[in-house]
Amino acid sequence: MIGRLLALALVALSATTINARAQEGERAQMVVELFTSQGCSQCPRANRLLGMFAREDDVLALTFPVGIWDYLGWHDTFAQPEYAERQRTYSRTMRVRGRFTPQLVINGASQISASDWDQARATYDAQRAEGWPANAPNLSISRLRNNRVRVTVGARANAPAADVWLIAYDPGPITVVITGGANRNRSVAHYNLVKWIERLESWDGQSAWYERQRCQPECAVLVQEVNGGRILAAAYTSRPSRY
């Protein structure tokens, strides 16, 4: 009898410890994506703008490096094909002619060049005033032990067809010294640098739950209309800022 009670106590203690180690993330009110390139002369300044957005409350700001200027003599050290494909998808959906850098995409609903800070801020403010759509689902992300992450998407009636995306990113700043191309001999800083992006599943308005093994240093989750449409909801893990 004593042994059984001890075993039950150990199970309860273990469950309490696991719950205590689960760190609830934050719900974002804005998502700002910067498509940037180390071979773009205007991009170092745009990277700094993204860093400024990242410091604002309830904002998920993400850097997606692309290699469209690699032919100028410097290959972007962080560019990935899936980031370029995400930018292409936005271009098709928003009917943008071709791809360019530095490009800001805000809440998946509007885009603008990040070269002009005043115009970028005006677009950002207008999108923030509009807020999330009425059919935005409840969304949460929690960090578990061993860099695991748990994502929960609430049910929402009459929801549009959407995808659930999981993103890992490094808050940085991560600085790279460029030795060729348009930014030769410049140090370029990256903020909230995306390390990988994964489509978890399509979402049809029903409640959903996911766990994944890798979430390092930080992770974010997006519920986004298909084909690079509006972002319906976003959440992210967070730790004290390093910059």
Descriptive notes:
The chain is α+β, with helices and mostly antiparallel strands. The chain has a single domain (24-236), classed as Glutaredoxin (3-Layer(aba) Sandwich), CATH 3.40.30.10. It is built from four helices and 15 strands. The protein has helices spanning 2-21, 43-54, 81-94, 117-130, and strands at residues 23-24, 26-27, 30-36, 59-65, 103-106, 110-113, 139-143, 149-153, 162-170, 174-178, 186-190, 193-203, 208-212, 218-225, 231-236. The protein has a five-stranded antiparallel β-sheet, with no helix packed on it. A four-stranded antiparallel β-sheet has the order 1-7-8-13, covered by helices on one side. A four-stranded mixed β-sheet has the order 4-3-5-6, with helices on both faces. The longest helix has 20 residues, at 2-21. It is globular, with a radius of gyration of 20 Å. The N and C termini lie far apart (55 Å). 38% of the residues are buried. Residues 3-20 have low confidence and may be disordered.
Helix-strand category: alpha+beta
Using only CA atoms, what is the Rg?
Answer: 20 Å
| Count of the separate structural domains | 1
CATH C-level label: Alpha Beta
Q: Number of helical runs?
A: 4
Assign a percent range to the helix content: 10-25%
Terminal-residue CA separation: 55 Å
How are the strands of the largest sheet arranged? 2-15-14-9-12
| Mean residue pLDDT | 89
Strand content: 25-35%
Low-confidence sequence ranges: 3-20
Give the full name of the CATH homologous superfamily. Glutaredoxin
Question: What shape does the CA trace take?
Answer: globular
What is the second-level CATH architecture? 3-Layer(aba) Sandwich
